[in-house]
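Supplementary Note 2. Why include the ligand at all?

Several targets in our set were suspected to adopt different conformations when bound, so apo predictions alone were not considered sufficient. For every target with a known small-molecule partner we therefore ran a joint prediction. The input for zinc ion is given below.
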Amino acid sequence: MLEIILIPALKDNYIWLGINRELAEVFIVDPGEAAPVLAYLREHSLKPIAILVTHKHWDHTGGIEELVSRYPDLQVYAHALENVSSVTHHVKDGEVFKLSMWPEPFTVIHIPGHTLGHVAYYAKPLLFSGDTLFCAGCGRVFEGTAEQMLASLERLAALPDDTQVYCGHEYTQNNLRFAVQVEPENADIAKRYEAVVNLRSSGKPAVPSDMRLERLTNPFLRCKQNVAKFRELREWKDRF
Ligand SMILES: [Zn+2]
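The joint prediction is reproduced in token form.
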């Protein structure tokens, strides 16, 4: 009765819906646009309860205003540093909150780097990681420092093996093409790259993945707290 649904949006954004079919209620993660979400809600007669915002960038927030105007009771969660409009709940690191329609509580993990108020939402075993941890990669360091970004990634990497990583973009194939260059000898990366090429060529998403696989194949989770190595990799990937 519980389900996570993917709504592709904009160029390569992923909006995630957590659906409780029994209650016909939904939470929405990072609605970069409203139209495809509204269409899905209408088609399946679902009511949105909450919007969880990982960070302020327009491609994660562009749909909030319209959704809130259609559903004025919507709760909107984001970190105060992100200045997201329509927010009803400012979240902070370590905070745990409950949505009535979802059995597991959500833990807020403040992960600065991509932006200063970026957060992830963890509701065992689901992790909504926004633009910080991507499948097989990580986001650009726009506002924070390399030190902050690496520390943020390592906090996420400490979550259990079976954590399901739901990120904000489908960059997986390109990320693995990069990972193969970084670690040409890594058989897990080679295997995952091949699997993802197959998935993508048949039009399927390569998200989510699990944290065990990320630790084996995501070069940015393999820096062993070495900031110089992380910075070098991130700069290489920026030019890749
Ligand atoms: Zn972003």
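The radius of gyration is 17 Å. The chain has one domain: 2-171. Comparable summaries for the other entries are listed in the accompanying table.
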